[in-house]
From TrEMBL:
Keywords: Glycoprotein, Hydrolase, Signal, Zinc
GO molecular function per UniProt: acid phosphatase activity; metal ion binding
UniProt protein name: Purple acid phosphatase
Protein source organism: Quillaja saponaria
Domain Purple acid phosphatase N-terminal: 55-142
Family statement: Belongs to the metallophosphoesterase superfamily. Purple acid phosphatase family.
Origin: domain of life: Eukaryota
Amino acid sequence: MRAGRISLLFLILGLMSLSFDLGFFAGVHSYNRPPPRKTISVQQSGGDAASKTSPQQVRISQVGQDKMRISWITDSSTPAKVVYVPWISPGSNASSASGTTSSYRYSLYQSGEIHDVLIGPLNPNTVYYYRLGDPPSVKQYTLKTPPQLFPIKFAVIGDLGQTEWTNSTLQHIEKSNYDMLLLPGDLSYADFIQTKWDSFGRLVEPLASQRPWMVTQGNHEVEKIPIVHPHSFTAYIARWRMPYEESGSDSNLYYSFDVAGIHVCMLGSYTDFNPNSAQYKWLEMDLKKIDRGRTPWIVVTIHAPWYSSNTAHQGESESVAMKAAMEDLVYRSRVDIVFAGHVHAYERFTRVYKDKADNCGPVHITIGDGGNREGLASKYIDPKPEISIFREASFGHGQLEVVNGTHALWTWHRNDDDERVVSDTMWLISLSSDPACKV
């Protein structure tokens, strides 16, 4: 009976994997992709990491203005405890905090022990040493808190995956001296194979354990299998807990936070977004509470882009219907930038509203080029729409340097022959500082 269940599971997974590749799943249109680079798998290393209670897949995320959530996984039970101290006074008495431990089951897979600990209050723009567990781990980690005031630098990547291209992207980001990373969906490309979530956690740990990673979900996080596993986002919600409660949200699939004068809304393209939905009502409330005197910039992230001139993923409800439901709300609130993923290429639009250039609309940027296993979306609509300023099907990442309350520099860095190449640049002026866009 067990062997039969396993055979059925692999048959279903095979069919669903095929549907992803052929473009039949969820109404996705098929398109030709250039061959991707090799998929990599990161195993748990030896030494101290071989212990059943040794931390792995360590990552941090911001919670409120002066706290961080540290998350990690162990193979067996151990106290969820963090000991931390500022690097400027390593000999001082260390602070400690305890948290919660959970796990999840996905069909025949049982996750490790997932630990979440909130530490703080922390000083801004400060490096801290920290150790995990009780007794504390042999390995010592470091994290740096974001600045409280401008300037601040974001790294932005979408559709990351775990290929040799991914590794190249991460290496470039590591050299960028960023303060916080934004990821608009499609993280691990585990696609139902839960051990790939573990591999992804190990792959990104060197960066995610040092700077806050703020993420939202994409279609590859859904992982819903009829009958076998009828629940969506099980692994994503369990592994990547974001500060949704602190922003008044009722779901880990959408939330907001403030950092150094920027209000960031991380939205869910694959959960209800119509005007009667909990997400829409939450976003409406969240945007109304923004004080542009304190946070003159507003950034929104989604997964499925509202604007795209790529032939890939055209006409999907997650793009078309979400845009129809929420674009007015975003426009009236004078959102400055909307980041999206999903389309495996890069594209930047002018400020736009209802398909036309509008100086008071947000700049839409598709950044779904992190390095996923499916390759690039290389075909574009011809002729290029006037509202599309720059488009290219290459792997890479973006950097948003917010200099002050009025000016920010956006650059897109192409991974060309494994060297970071700056291919697109623009200066932005915040809408809150434009008298013509006052609301």
